[in-house]
Amino acid sequence: MRPSAPALLFAVFSLFNVAATASACKSNEWINLAPIPTARQEHGTVTISNETIAILGGIVVVGSGTEMTDLLQFYDIPSDTWSTKSAVPRKVNHPNVAVVGNKLYLLGGLVDGPAVAGVSMNWVASASSYVYDVTADTWSDLAPMPNGTEKGSSIVGVYNEMIYLAGGMTVLQDTYQDAVNTVVSFNTTSGQWQRVVANAAELPESRQHGTGAVVGDTFYVVGGRWFGQMNTRDTVFELDLTNQETGWKSSAAHMPVSRGGIYGAAVGDKFYAFGGEGNPDTSTGVFNQSEAFDTESQQWTELNPMAVPRHGTQAASVGGLVYIPGGGLQQDGKTVSMNGSMSYMQLSSHFDAYCV
């Protein structure tokens, strides 16, 4: 059946809008987009298609406090609008998320743990995993993470049908947080967890709140931290996915600024890293740095700083733009004076994109 004239016009208009957004954005500049409907941080962000970005889970403001959420929201790039989809099966923060084909995968993350004396916040790793069908707007259960491998805040890489989770954490409390060095993988074709070869099954050092992606045949793990907000790292770990027996390598090219709570995305053969927390030189404790890592030359380039510095979010790339929805405006737990009152956590609904 031939598409109707209105349908053809809509398709052309949508493609025009995507192109117009990219062309209106000059290289090394920031553009503001429609704010996310609900301010949040510690959520997952993924590219669904060349017209759609999704955010899910995280922390939102409720009354005078905050709590975990099960919200799944889509951003439509051509219309610059948001919509709400079927809720995630459970409330989660620091989720490990990825997209393969037309499916969105949620693999583990952090959830509310049992009460602990003297501790007001006790988030622990969950093994529960789910898959979301974009077309049907439905969630289904997946095989849980194998016992002892559950974690949140992992660095996620996608290679063909495989999803890799590198590092992460199993507990986040008021005054304590751990970091793990394990690497696990999920096969989206078989729907099963798959053992990583021994030489690639551990990072050179435990890492959480880092960022990274697969570029070409190599999985990159960038920055992050080793236990605690101030134990930031500037490392770049690399794994050749075509020859995993060689194990992880450490690049000689360190980040210009060491930081954790960062986020980023790959565009072409470059990886872009932004923001973060643990900055001792600002009143908010947040970094505004923007940096690009050329995976071919193994060189870092400092870019135009963030107009609205944040931590505790994730990024997604479409075309020549890197989209960054929400995040935290101040280092969690750090006392900051805001309009005459003291603030310990400040969630943002700001949404912008960096033009590569």
Structural class: mainly beta
Name of the level-1 CATH class: Mainly Beta
> What overall geometry do the principal axes of the alpha carbons give?
globular
Q: Which consecutive residue ranges, at least 5 long each, have pLDDT under 50?
A: 1-20
* CATH architectural label: 6 Propeller
Strand content: 35-45%
User: According to CATH, what is the topology?
Assistant: Neuraminidase
Mean pLDDT: 93
The total tally of domains equals: 1
Give the termini separation: 40 Å
- CA gyration radius, whole angstroms: 19 Å
> Strands of the biggest beta sheet: in what spatial order?
1-32-29-28
Task: Describe it.
Strand 7 (72-76) and strand 8 (81-84) form a beta hairpin. The strands form 9 sheets. The protein has a 4-stranded antiparallel sheet with strand order 1-32-29-28, with no helix packed on it. The chain has one domain (36-355): Kelch-type beta propeller (Neuraminidase, 6 Propeller). By secondary structure, it is mostly beta strands. It is built from 1 helix and 32 strands. Keywords: Signal.
Q: Nutshell version of this structure?
A:
InterPro entries: Gal_Oxase/kelch_b-propeller, Kelch-typ_b-propeller, Kelch_1. The protein has 356 residues and is mainly beta.
Q: Secondary-structure blueprint of this entry?
A:
Layout: H1 5-23, E1 30-32, E2 40-41, E3 44-49, E4 52-56, E5 59-62, E6 65-68, E7 72-76, E8 81-84, E9 97-100, E10 103-107, E11 110-112, E12 122-125, E13 129-133, E14 138-141, E15 155-159, E16 162-168, E17 171-173, E18 180-187, E19 192-194, E20 211-215, E21 218-222, E22 236-240, E23 249-250, E24 263-267, E25 270-274, E26 290-294, E27 299-302, E28 316-318, E29 321-328, E30 336-338, E31 341-343, E32 347-355
Antiparallel strand pairs: 1-32, 2-5, 3-4, 4-7, 5-6, 7-8, 9-10, 10-13, 11-12, 12-17, 13-14, 15-16, 16-18, 18-19, 20-21, 21-22, 22-23, 24-25, 25-26, 26-27, 28-29, 29-32, 30-31
Protein name: Kelch repeat-containing protein
Signal peptide: 1-24
Keywords: Signal
